[in-house]
């Protein structure tokens, strides 16, 4: 009996020890889970049910002077999945009755609805079958996205993002630039990226084991911020006209490239900066000419030729060294002591020309005879005040030539002479436009610009250009040069251009030889016309430039495009016609 009781107590003790040991193991495990590993396990649990989502900040728009969008952002959708949840399901798959839908059938329907590729979808799913995220198709518009959601596939999800579109396409592609996979690639998109770029935010939501988002589980971790709106001075309608005009002329002239600018004289605003060829930012890959990715009017430097004679004439008058009726004996050619030689474009007997006649006939010999009354430094300083020899200060655009000429010219004797008729120096089309804006504006230069500023999402204006005015020559000098330039149209190098009925036009032609490296100047030319209207009170400056034309290598070939574009400008802005005929200075004596 005593032995039996002793055995029962022993068994009881053993059982109690086992129970205590088991409870102790559970307690230790519980402490390990709830205390020691709590943070790590919570994180793992959260990762399995909490799905991170990027909230995209919308990139700001680029708009023209009237608010028309040149670059904008639209909503696009990426379709994603959780590979571990991909399996057959019971559903309608866009039909009318419930059926068992296989993975292959679902992917085929998804590809048809979205325009995606089944093989790519399978590859992305198979890359990590136990993961919670993989892309199936990217960049769907609303129409295709709705077609996908109508399928009712339970394991596909949306990821919303903004995509860049350019409503005016190639018309303003040279200015807006474009976006790429690595961000802003060119133009205003690149220069003003800090203004335009949105700031992405983040959000999480919880998803059940069946892959369905749990209602009310979204938590915003970081707010998204939209980018600002970049306001330009460009008139997109006029930009289209300018682009069409030079494209048509360039094809007829068989020119390598062409540019056109339209400037508001009183404000310095560029209303159009057109290039041919140009890029369509909606289809960048279709552009094979990499030089068309930007704007040649802003970035391509060239020797401007005789358009610069207008600046030399203005400087001479401003310094009291000449006048519109100043007399000069002008032979066909000049030879200099160091062996250099210059000549006019066409042979002529020695002529008695006034300064007006020199501009009218675009005489290289004549402008150098009178221009030599100014020192080299004086001519250089005037050219720089007109806007040459340095990047446009009020224009922020990638690829502008540095043109760092310093404070004094480093010219040899021949270049010193040639510079007076636009050879041996470099300009851009916009810089030539700046010269004529200054003359048209009574000798006051306003830095040319085509961006007004950026309005941020919170209403602040930033990036406004500095357009401080500067007097370059006297009002008298500017007015007299404008008067002389009318003779170019009525009886000079533009005499063959059909007049613009009712308007007095002041303009200057340029036919510059193209340097070909060590070989010197060859047979190629850059032809241009720069002018203003109406001459008695100029409102607009128009320039056109053609690089390496083949069918007509003289500035007369550029004249029709200039006339067409100037006519369009005067009509569009309803400029009042000239009240009287042009009063011309004598060209000979």
Tertiary shape = elongated
Strand content: 15-25%
Q: Catalogue the unreliable spans.
A: none
Straight-line N-to-C gap: 155 Å
Q: Portion of residues in helices? A: 25-40%
Describe the structure.
The structure is a single chain. By secondary structure, the protein is α+β, with helices and mostly antiparallel strands. The chain contains 18 helices and 25 strands. The strands form 8 sheets. Strands 2, 3, 6, 7, 12, 20 and 21 form a 7-stranded mixed sheet that branches. Strands 14-13-25-24-23 form a 5-stranded antiparallel sheet, with helices on both faces. A hairpin with a 2-residue loop joins strand 8 and strand 9. The longest helix has 35 residues, at 2-36. The chain is elongated. The chain starts with a helix and ends in a 17-residue tail after the last helix. The mean pLDDT is 90.
Itemize the secondary structure elements and their pairings.
Blueprint: H1 2-36, H2 38-49, E1 50-55, E2 62-63, E3 69-81, E4 89-91, E5 99-101, H3 103-114, H4 118-126, E6 134-140, H5 142-149, E7 156-165, H6 170-176, E8 179-180, E9 183-184, H7 187-191, H8 193-196, E10 201-206, E11 219-222, E12 229-232, H9 236-253, E13 257-264, E14 270-276, H10 296-299, H11 309-318, E15 327-330, E16 333-335, E17 341-343, E18 351-354, H12 355-360, H13 364-371, H14 376-385, H15 413-418, H16 429-440, E19 444-445, E20 451-455, E21 461-462, E22 470-471, H17 475-491, E23 506-515, E24 521-533, E25 540-547, H18 559-572
Parallel strand pairs: 2-12
Antiparallel strand pairs: 1-10, 2-3, 3-6, 3-7, 4-5, 8-9, 10-11, 12-20, 13-14, 13-25, 15-18, 16-17, 19-22, 20-21, 23-24, 24-25
């Amino acid at each position: 009996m005593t032995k039996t009781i002793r055995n029962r107590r022993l068994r009881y003790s053993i059982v109690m020890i086992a129970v205590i040991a088991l409870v102790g193991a559970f307690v230790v495990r519980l402490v390990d889970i709830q205390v020691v590993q709590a943070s790590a396990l919570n994180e793992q649990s959260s990762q399995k049910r909490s799905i991170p989502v990027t909230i995209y900040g919308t990139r700001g728009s680029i708009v023209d002077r009237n608010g028309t969008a040149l670059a904008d952002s639209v909503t696009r959708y990426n379709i994603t999945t959780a590979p571990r949840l991909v399996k057959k399901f019971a559903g309608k798959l866009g039909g009318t009755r419930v059926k068992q839908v296989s993975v292959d059938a679902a992917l085929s329907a998804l590809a048809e609805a979205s325009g995606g590729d089944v093989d790519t979808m399978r590859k992305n799913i198979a890359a990590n079958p136990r993961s919670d995220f993989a892309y199936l198709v990217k960049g769907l518009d609303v129409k295709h996205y709705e077609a996908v959601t109508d399928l009712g596939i339970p394991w596909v999800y949306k990821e919303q993002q903004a995509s860049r579109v350019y409503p005016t396409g190639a018309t303003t592609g040279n200015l807006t630039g474009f976006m790429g996979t690595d961000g802003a690639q060119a133009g205003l998109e690149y220069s003003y990226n800090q203004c335009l770029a949105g700031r992405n935010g983040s959000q999480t939501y919880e998803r059940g084991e069946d892959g369905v988002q749990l209602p009310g589980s979204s938590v915003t971790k970081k707010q998204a911020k939209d980018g600002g709106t970049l306001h330009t001075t460009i008139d997109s309608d006029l930009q289209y006209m300018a682009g069409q005009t030079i494209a048509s002329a360039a094809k007829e002239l068989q020119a390598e490239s062409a540019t056109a600018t339209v400037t508001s004289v009183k404000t310095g605003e560029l209303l159009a900066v057109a290039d041919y060829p140009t890029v369509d930012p909606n289809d960048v890959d279709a552009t094979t000419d990499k030089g068309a990715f930007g704007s040649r009017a802003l970035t391509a430097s060239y020797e401007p030729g005789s358009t610069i004679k207008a600046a030399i004439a203005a400087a001479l008058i401003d310094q009291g060294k000449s006048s519109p009726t100043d007399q000069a004996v002008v032979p066909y050619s000049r030879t200099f002591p160091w062996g250099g030689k210059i000549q006019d474009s066409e042979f002529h007997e020695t002529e008695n020309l006034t300064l007006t006649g020199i501009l009218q006939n675009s005489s290289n010999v004549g402008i150098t005879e009178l221009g030599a009354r100014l020192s080299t430094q004086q001519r250089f300083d005037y050219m720089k005040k007109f806007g040459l020899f340095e990047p446009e200060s009020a224009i922020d655009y990638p690829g502008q030539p540095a043109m760092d000429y310093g404070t004094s010219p480093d010219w040899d004797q021949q270049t010193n002479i040639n510079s007076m008729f636009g050879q041996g120096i470099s300009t851009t089309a916009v810089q030539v436009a700046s010269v004529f804006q200054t003359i048209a504006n009574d000798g006051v230069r306003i830095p040319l610009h085509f961006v007004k500023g950026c309005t941020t999402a919170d209403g602040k204006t930033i990036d406004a250009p500095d357009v401080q005015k500067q007097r370059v020559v006297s009002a008298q000098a500017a007015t007299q040069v404008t008067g002389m330039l009318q003779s170019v149209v009525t009886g000079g190098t533009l005499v063959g251009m059909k007049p613009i009925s009712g308007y007095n036009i002041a303009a200057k032609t340029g036919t510059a030889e193209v340097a070909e490296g060590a070989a010197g100047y060859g047979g190629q030319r850059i032809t241009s016309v720069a002018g203003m209207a109406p001459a008695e009170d100029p409102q607009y400056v128009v320039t056109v430039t053609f690089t390496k034309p083949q069918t007509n290598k003289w500035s007369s070939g550029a004249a029709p495009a200039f006339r067409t574009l100037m006519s369009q400008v005067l009509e569009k802005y309803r400029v009042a016609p000239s009240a009287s005929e042009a009063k011309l200075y004598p060209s000979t004596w």
